[in-house]
Amino acid sequence: MSNTTFEQIGRVLREHQRFAILSHVRPDGDALGSQLALALSLQQLGKDVRVWNEDGMLEKYSFLPRAELLTKPPSTADDVDVAIALDTAIQNRLGTTFAAIGSTKIWINIDHHRSNPGYGDLVFVDESAPATGEIIFNLIKSQGLPLNHDIAENLYAAISTDTGSFQYPKTSARTFEIAAELVRVGNLDVGQISQQLYENYPRRRLELLRELLRTMRFSECGRVASFSLTLKTAANLTVLPEDNEGLIDHLRAIRGVIVAVFFEELADGKVRISMRSKDEAIDVCAICQKFGGGGHALAAGARVRGSLAEVEAKVLEEIRGVLERKS
Ligand code: 5GP
Ligand code: MN
User: Fold this and answer.
1) In what order do the strands lie in the sheet with 70-71?
2) Element holding 19 (H helix, E strand)
3) Which residues of 209-231 are buried (b: 16+ CB within 10 A; e: fewer)?
């Protein structure tokens, strides 16, 4: 998929001055941590860097070093030399940050999603990487770019969150070596970072989980588990979109479950689906691509037009067909 090397990207980074670093809507720890890490490294080189996400910095990641650098995009477009999309499987998931780029000489696309079609001028997509943060680390190391405490902590958070705390199958010996180097170089306090990431949730997140569990259902002899969230419940609990990140793991963690699905009613007449698989033979990226989405083989998503009930029925039927064909 990649049409470029770290050397080519490194040259472009060194030879230009004005950068914009972007990532996907509804960002996760990998998107935000990778953005901040690359931005801080470029700033150390004296570059002029914008760091934008449609949703701005999320409350729960605002502990990340220099989190204040990451903002929502400005309403009037800005001209840059280089625009860099990180962790973003398709260009339209850049959301409103895309329109904030008035002009750019070069688009760089750095990602680890297998569904990434390779948009942009310089494309580096490594689907074996468990996190975009791991690719950014490799880029920084191979090109001798600055790496300090703040950069290390952002990369550590990116990798920790996208590997499910070093649990998911793409976690490799290399991932642990990178984590070790980040801890060493940045003199990181792993316990404290983990507490910020995993033991600092607002109470409403658990209240949300309680409501989701009430809707939990199983099909295909317990191989498929799902739960759903209506707009009404979300409003009653005053939850933020970011509050549900990771709750699907409760479904995936159930013995016998192969596919977990979370259905979330959105205000625009669509339903967001979030899907996880525990079996390499069941590729949820392929399933989500049927509904216009994408992601990874074991973690993917889509936004589908229709009511909650319609989308649930369609998606569960598609999963049933896939399970039937594989068994
Ligand atoms: P999540 O379920 O955590 O929202 O997303 C799981 C993975 O699927 C992420 O890597 C995310 O980038 C990707 N993904 C989620 N929703 C969509 C979507 O609507 N379109 C595409 N192309 N990818 C998605
Ligand atoms: Mn990622």
Assistant:
1) 70-71, 48-52, 18-23, 82-86, 106-111, 122-125
2) strand 18-23
3) bebbeeeeeebbeebbbbbbbee
Nearest CA to ligand 1 atom 20: 293
**CA 33 to CA 152: how far, in whole Å?**
10
Assign domain 203-326 one CATH number from 3.40.50.300, 3.40.605.10, 3.10.310.30, 3.90.226.10: 3.10.310.30
State whether the beta carbon of 108 lies less than 6 angstroms from ligand 1: no
Q: Which CATH number fits domain 6-198: 1.20.1260.10, 1.10.3720.10, 3.90.1640.10, 3.90.950.20?
A: 3.90.1640.10
Q: Which residues pair with 84 in a beta bridge?
A: 21, 108
Give the integer Cα–Cα distance in Å for 37 and 176.
18
Instruction: Grade residue 2 by pLDDT with cuts at 50, 70 and 90.
Output: confident
Rounded to the nearest 5°, which phi and psi values hold at 57? Answer: -75, 135
- Cα 155 to ligand 2 centre (Å): 12
Report the separation in Å between the CA atom of 11 and the middle of ligand 1, taken as the mean of its atom positions. 31
Which positions ≥6 away from 203 have C-beta within 8 Å?
none
The pTM (predicted TM-score) of the whole model is: 0.94
Q: What's the pLDDT tens digit per position in 72-100?
A: 999 999 999 999 999 999 999 999 999 99
Domain ranges across the chain:
6-198, 203-326
- 286 CB contacts (<8 Å, ≥6 apart)? 297, 322
Helix runs in 16-148, H state only:
29-44, 96-99, 132-142
CA 263 – CA 144 distance, rounded (Å): 43
